[in-house]
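Q: How would the structure tokens look for this protein?
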Amino acid sequence: MLYRGSCHCGDVKFDAQGDLQGVMACNCSICRRKGALLWFVPRAHVTFSTPDDNLATYTFNQHTIRHRFCKRCGIHTFAEATHPNGTEMVCINVRCLEDVDPDVLPVTLYDGRSR
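A: Here is the predicted structure in token form.
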């Protein structure tokens, strides 16, 4: 299924193709503060219609995950990382997807704080 997503002001827009399964809530220091629900999608299944100049990047700790957010409204729309098997992944904030009610999705709790 095709999902469309964006930040609040619309400067960051993307389409993601896949089954909306495996949604996670992480309790690490940044995810807990952002309140994001995470959906991991291979980078090849995500299309961005946003110039990279509209995005800011934040990294911390081991700098393996690039947390991306809109420069204008500050909404965290996704993150980028490499799966241990080498696949480039996009971690989409489900709360930024159009026509998706995150309150009805099954969510797995992930203990990122302990890792």
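Strands lie at 2-6, 13-17, 24-26, 38-42, 46-48, 55-58, 66-70, 76-82, 88-93, 108-110.

The chain has a mean pLDDT of 94.

Upvote if useful.
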